Amino acid sequence: xxxxxxxYALRVMIDLAQNQGDGYIPMKEVxxxxxxxxxxxxxxxxxxxxxxxxxxxxxxxxxYRLTRAPEDYSVGDILRVAEGDLAPVACLMCGAKPCxxxxxxKTLPMWTALYETINHFFDERTLADLL
Length: 131
What we know:
Strands 1-2 form a two-stranded antiparallel ribbon. It has helices spanning about 5-20, 25-35, 40-50, 75-85, 110-125, 125-130; strands spanning about 55, 65. It has six helices and two strands, in the order αααββααα. The chain has a single domain (about 5-130), classed as Arc Repressor Mutant, subunit A. Helix 1 packs across helix 2, helix 1 packs across helix 4 and helix 4 packs across helix 5 (about 110-125).
């Protein structure tokens, strides 16, 4: 399941894409337009900056903007930055310890197929597609 953090990260990225002609967009403006608290925005934007999806400038005239064109962002990349991993079960998460039952697990192929479907679905869609 995609959490609020993932959904809001997508909304922030869409907002920045829609307003990219305006230069750096203040966090306060994005928060207002997206009806997201400033406090929550302060948790989302630094993660997006750290991972290089957006860049930020402090001070007068500062704010945030995309680092590349909307078509160069996959929805999957944005969600993985916000959510970590999109695995439907813990045993498929990146870095998970191998499950002792994996060899005999009757449900593992189903979960693996779902995981692949989820990643493919989100990786096939770009930020530009959402605009």
